[in-house]
Every structure is written in structure tokens, then in C-alpha cells.
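hey all, quick one before standup. I had two proteins in the batch that finished overnight and I want to keep them in one place so we stop losing track of which output belongs to which input. First protein below, input sequence then C-alpha cells straight from the run.
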Amino acid sequence: MRQFFSYINHFFSKFSHLTLIMISVFLAIVIGWIRYKTGSEYAFSLFYLFPIIISTWYVGRGVGIAMSIICVATWLTADVSLLHKFSNTAVPFINETFRLIVFLFVTCLVWELKRALGINTALARTDPLTGIANRRAFFEFADIELKKAQRFKNPVSIIYMDIDNFKNINDRFGHHVGDRLLRIVADTIKKNIRSIDMAARFGGDELGVLLPETDDTGIRILANKLREKLLARMRHHGWSTTFSIGAATFQNSGISVYEMLNIADKLMYFAKRNGKNKIVFQVVKKKPGDVRPDIEIVA
């Protein structure tokens, strides 16, 4: 059943809003025409839920409300042409009033369901403390970008950082200050990367940034920029924290997301083991073996 709904969602997601509206209006007219041809003895109004749900879910609540009115109008038009078959001329108008109420209720219900689903999806992909992506969302995004990079032969880069002496901040000032520090770090990263990049928190005090279509020159510039910006924010708040950063660029390496993170993680720990507050770079041009980083020591 899940696969069926996934297929339906994928099918309708390919159409533009205008196309979906045109499809919905067409369905409403067809159902009204069927009503006219079959007479007043048969009721097909349940089928109106298809154009109403489609327009509401994929276009918006306002369009869903408009579609509800259009559906009722087409049915009423058919009933007016069959007015002589009703015991009372007011019956079609009373029926359509109640039908409109039901359609509007369904529209609001579908919209609220979509909104709730969107919120739950966002929560499942977002780190609740910092508001940036979590590990799951990062893996999904990175998998897509790596496949695109392999197809179009574009480089992909990653920054993996750890906050040095973060435990000391928690021990000295309390976890509420540590949480504030993490939010500031995440906010600083978000403000200094492109819209096509993704910042994520992997857990604890480890964060990363995936940079599609970014070569080793670009990653060096950004890694140094982020480090300078972050250190400035730390000094502003009087925190003696620094950052150990691993930065890797992958060129036609056919690498997996797990392997990519593993390399970046090793580069970050290489920086930590060599005195912290350093950036370690590596360019990977083939399937990884041992990490042999090119070290850049930042004073």
C-alpha cells in the first residue's frame, strides 16, 4: 500500500500546478456530464473527491476550496437541467448546499493532514537543538548529490568539524550555555554557505557541511572562512573554544556517503591529534585507501 501511494505521489508531482488545476477541472466537468447523462437516479458525487483532493494536496487549500465550488456548480448545473424529475424544485439546491459543506470539510481535512505530515517530516530530518539537518537528512542529500556528481563528473566537497574543548564549556558554564554555543555555531555556518549546500549536526559537538560542485580551491576558501567567522563569534562570547576541521574533495571517486564521511571524520581527528584548532585537507580522486592528508596548520 505504501508503494502504491508513493507511486501516485510521484506521478502527480511531475505535473505543474496549472496542469493539475486543468486536470481537476476536467474531471469535475466529466463527472457533471455523467450526472446529466445518467439522470437523477444515480449519484456519482463521491468521485468529486478525486479532483478536490488532488488540487488541495498538490496545489493548495485555496485551490481546493475553489475546486469544491466548481464541483458543486457542475453537479447543480446537471440537476437544474433535470429539475422536472425532482419532487420539489428546491431539492437540488438543498442537496448541493450540504454537498458543498462536505467538500469544504474534506478540503480542510486534507490540507491539515498534509501540513501535519510536512511538520513531522521536517522534524524527522531536522536537529531539534540547532535547526539544521540531522544525520539522516544529510545521508539522503549526500547520496543524491554523489550520484549527480558521478554522472556529470563534478567534484563534491565536505567539511567535518568538531568543537574543541566543548566539554569544558558544559562543565564550567552549564549545558544551557553549551546548547547556546551549538546554536550559534550552526547559525554561523548557515549564514556563510550557499543555498545548495547542506549543514548538518551529526551528534554531540560534531557538525558537517556538504558542498556540491565544489573543488579543492573552493573548499579551502570556505573552510578558512568558516573557521575565522566561528572563532570571532567564540571570542565575542568569551568562550575559549576552537575548531578541528577535516575538509575533503572527491573527484570522480565513485565513493559512497559512508566512505565520504569516514574520510572526513579521520581528517578531523587527524587535526585533533596534532594539536587541535587546525584544518586538514585531502583530495580523493579514486577509491580511498589509507588517509594521507595534506596538512594546513592555522595559527
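OK second protein, same deal, sequence then C-alpha cells:
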Amino acid sequence: MNRERFQSITNRYLKLRIAVLGDYCLDRYLEIDPSKQETSIETGLPVHNVVNVRPQPGGAGTIVNNLAALGIREILPIGFAGEDGEGSELRAALEKVPGVRLDSFVKTRERRTFTYCKPLIVEKGKPPVELNRLDSKNWTTTPAAVEEALIRGLDHVSGSVDAIIILDQVDKPDTGVVTGRVLEAVGQFAAKHPQVHVLADSRRGLSGYPAVIFKMNSSELAALTGAREPYDIESAGKAALGLARKNGRPVFISLAAQGLLGVDADGTTCHLPALPLRGEIDVVGAGDAVSANLATALAAGASLAEALELANTAASIVIHKLGTTGTANVNEIASLLGY
């Protein structure tokens, strides 16, 4: 890809409408100043004094942040938040993201807001250090009324989007947004609108998912295909090709330090090694940056190889942003590509 082609693809981002269906959470960063040391009189335990609180959308919200950084014209979140303080913070954070419309975002008393509370030791001149995280999740089955509202949200964007990105972030099946019923609706949508690029990623793997674009890591590929790890590039490509031909859609595999691999149903295969490290890294959010850039580039008319190059570059930018779940904008990607 040359400079002209890069500009041609990324200029189309400004016209795209992309929906993000998945588990939205609140990333609440608590910045702790270790110089303000105290000991609790009551317990005798050290006190961590929080000097700044940074709330930002996490989970599927991280994908939203990446889409906004790319300049997408309209971003349509499909998910839910509870009627609680964290839900108010999450909605407020999403409303501040350029291009976001919350018409299909569900507010419900039947769920609590998925929250990652991240205490950080912050010292001047040093990288932030994250302490043990405090998570708030739902452990019961998502109520039918919430599922129906999510499916209505999917129907609402039907026929008007260029891509849909799906992120299943929960550990226990059917406790989040991407339940079995919602997946059925996704399958119907994908079959009815084959021109829309529907990309799915799930931390529990993509077994049982409809025929959409699969994005996964090598362990998830092994679990889905029954193959053995570790993969070399050739064997990963063969396993991915079987899935791509079955779905009639591309398959993308993250191979960690070995980079990204993409395979299309016609047998087109492209592997890009990870870019060299340029300092300390934090891999949190890299996968979401890859998903956002792959779906966006494909919706803008990029080839398999071009989409991989853009996503690989974005991931390299994100992992070098410490103390936050970072994003990569078009100018940053252009600079790292030498454009």
C-alpha cells in the first residue's frame, strides 16, 4: 500500500456508519499518588489516596473509541448499562465520543453495569503501575426483555450500516449482550445483508457463531478446529482457510509476537509480522484496535492485505500507550507507515 492508496481508503472512513454490538463496560482508572501515604487508624492498613479518577468506555466501548479515533462518521453502540452510578458514568463517557448515537443503547434496571475498576500507582517520570483490578459483572442469565431490546436495536440499524463489530466480553455464556438469541438475530442479519461486513470476536471463542468474519487468537483457533498448538504460520493458515471456506468470509488470526494472519474464502492468505517494539508496552486494548481497524478498512474497500497492514500498525501504536486503553488515529497510523 502506498501513500495514495492509504489516503483513498482512510478518506472513506468519514462517510461510514458502523454499529458495535457487545458488552460495554466502564473502565474506571483510579490514579494513586504514593507520596500521599497514610495508615488507616481503624485497620492499621496502608491507605491508597486517589488523586484523580478517569472514567472511559471499555469492552465494546474500546472499539467505539478506536472507531472515533479513525474519524468514523456515525458510530452506533448496541448494548446495555444498568440504572446505577456506573451506568450513568458509562453513558456520559459514550456521549462525549465524537460520532456516537445511543438510540440503540439499552438502559435497564435488570442488569448492573459491567465495570473494570483499575487502581494505578502514578509517579512522575515512571510508567503507571496497575494494582489488582476490582470487577463488577453480571452472573445471572440476561433477561428476555433485555435480549428483545438488543434485537430491536439490531433491527434499527438494519440496512443502514457499512459494518457491525461484535465483541463478547463476558466469561459466563448468556450473561451479557451476545446471548444465543442475539446471535440468532445476527445470523439472520448477516444472511439478509451480505454486503455488510460483520466481524465477531469472543473471549470464549466463536463456536456456534453464524457465518460472519471471524477474528480470534491462536488458542481460540485451536479450540475451534481441534488442532494442536503451537501453530506455525503455515498450519495456522490451513486451519483458518477451512473456516473461511465454511463461512464464505475472511478469518483473521492474532499470533501475538508473530503478528497477524488473514485468510479469505478464495484462498488468499496474508501474514504480517508484528512491528518492532519501540519501548515499554501494555497489550491491553490491542485486540480491540485490530477489530476496529479490520472492519473499518474492509468497509472502506481495502483488500485483505491492506486491512491487515492498517490493523497491525494500529496495534503497534496502541501497545505503546501506557496507563490507559489506547487508540490509534489516522495521523498516527500514517506516521508509523512513513506517510
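Flagging for whoever picks this up: Residues 304-319 form the longest helix (16 residues). The chain is about 35% helix and 25% strand.
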